[in-house]
Specification:
The protein has 419 residues and is an alpha/beta fold. Helix 2 crosses helix 3. The longest helix is centred in the middle third of the chain and has 20 residues. It folds into 2 domains: 165 residues, Lyase, Ornithine Decarboxylase, Chain A, domain 1 (Beta Barrel); 183 residues, TIM Barrel. It has 12 helices and 17 strands. The structure holds pyridoxal-5'-phosphate (PLP). Belongs to the Orn/Lys/Arg decarboxylase class-II family.
């Protein structure tokens, strides 16, 4: 029972159409491309002047998603050779950067040949490797150093990417050494710094404090360089959270942007700030739809056994949450008279871990009905172990491609009134 989310009518129509054509019970992903575009535009429109928006494609790197966001964002953030292929095959080429630990020499070389804008350097060793490759290609390669900052206690708790021991970035204590290494590498040109410290950030206030901390440190970091004037870019990463359990209460993105704009205005030499966001851009457009195949009671608990499962949609298990579920009855039956009853929704895997959601109050559920799991557009299918048990892979259906566009749906960027 998810009262806050209504499924747009063009998505509902696509779901019904798909079910009609399935000879077996269905499990499939549906992505609402007009809604994705409208949401992306709202995210972008809220940004302060001169702040850029990149899309971190690891959240969802399907070509229809990248192509849809290409008309909205300023560029792409990539982390592998495979992602370089996807970005370069996109209908609208955008600038892109390459991040991530464990970059292959072959990927770094390939990136340079394909026109990478900048590398985000993750370690001292990477500086040396990148210099050799840039020299062999006789080019001067712009780079940003990824920093793992030392954060004040109230900011570092609960961070997973920085402010603690991680394989990502360069400790602030080693930054001086790293800057000197880039400055003395003849084929590398330092342009700025990159920090991606968070994922799942749901608190605007905490994120504001994090960004303030970066801006406060910025002059110090910049002053480490031989030519501080050339150091202009501050990439603040992504990590804006999605509230899966209370879909009506989403991150106050316009509020964050307003504060950031004020802070940048107050700085004598503000950096050019860039966000590289994944989850908060693509999560809202996706729906994972499964069909009820069986109902059973086991030791007092009621189960709905559905087509598909966590091998196709691992997100609820990865987040250790009970995903919201919307019930779509197949036939109009007198479900209004039925009582709400808590169901545990499971898939087809032979493991007790294959649970999409527990204790979901639904009424009048019948075999053949569909259950829709919303907010499935980021880190959904692509983080799942789809080959486990050799079930066929689910179809991914992209609703409303550019050529057949209905009016865009409302965005999930909240207006000022909501919070
Ligand atoms: C994953 C990742 C992102 C995007 O994170 P979201 O939480 O999806 O916004 C951005 N930058 C880097 C370096 C990442 O690894």
């Amino acid at each position: 029972m998810v009262e806050q989310i209504t499924i747009p009518s063009h998505v509902l129509a696509a779901i019904e159409e798909h079910q009609r054509h399935c000879s077996d019970p269905m499990a499939a992903f549906f992505y609402d491309l007009p809604a994705l575009e409208a949401h992306g535009r709202a995210v972008k429109a809220a940004l302060p002047e001169n702040v850029e928006l990149y899309y971190a494609i690891k959240a969802n790197s399907e070509s229809a998603i990248i192509d849809t966001l290409a008309s909205v964002v300023d560029g792409l953030e990539l982390s592998s050779g495979g992602e370089i292929e996807r970005a370069c095959n996109s209908a609208t080429p955008l600038p892109w950067v390459l991040s991530g630990p464990g970059k292959l020499d072959s990927d770094m070389r390939h990136a340079m040949l394909q026109g990478v804008e900048a590398f985000h350097i993750e370690s001292l060793g990477e500086i040396a490797r990148l210099q050799v490759i840039a020299a062999s290609l006789q080019r001067i390669q712009p780079v940003l150093l990824r920093i793992n900052p030392t954060l004040p206690d109230e900011l570092s708790s609960r961070l997973k990417m920085a402010g603690t021991a991680t394989p990502f970035g360069i400790d602030e204590a080693q930054l001086e050494e790293a800057v000197a290494a880039v400055d003395s590498a003849p084929n590398l040109s330092l342009r700025g710094f990159h920090i991606h410290a968070m994922s799942h950030q749901k608190s605007v206030q905490r994120h504001q404090r994090l960004l303030s901390f970066y801006l406060q440190r910025w002059p110090k970091w910049r002053a480490l360089a031989r030519e501080p004037k050339q150091i202009t870019q501050l990439n603040v990463g992504g990590g804006i959270g999605v509230n899966y359990l209370h879909p009506a209460q989403q991150f106050d993105w316009p509020g964050l942007c307003r504060t950031l704009g004020q802070q940048l205005e107050a700085m004598p030499e503000p950096p050019r700030v860039r966000f590289e966001i994944g989850r908060f851009l693509s999560a809202f457009c996706g729906y994972y739809v499964v069909e009820v195949m069986d109902t059973k009671i086991s030791h007092g608990e009621d189960f709905l056994v559905c087509r598909g499962g966590t091998h196709q949609f691992r997100l609820p298990v990865a987040q250790a949450h009970d995903h919201p579920v919307i019930h779509l009855p197949r036939y109009a039956h007198p479900s209004n008279q039925a009582e709400y009853q808590p169901w545990t929704i499971v898939g087809q895997l032979c493991t007790p871990k294959d649970v999409l959601s527990r204790h979901q109050p639904l009424r009048g559920v019948a075999i053949g009905d569909l259950l829709v799991l919303p907010l499935a557009g980021a880190y959904g299918y692509n983080i799942s172990h789809a080959d486990f048990l050799c079930h066929p892979r689910p179809e991914q259906i992209f609703v409303g491609r550019a050529s057949e566009r209905p009016a865009p749906e409302a965005s999930h960027v909240q207006s000022e009134l909501v919070e």
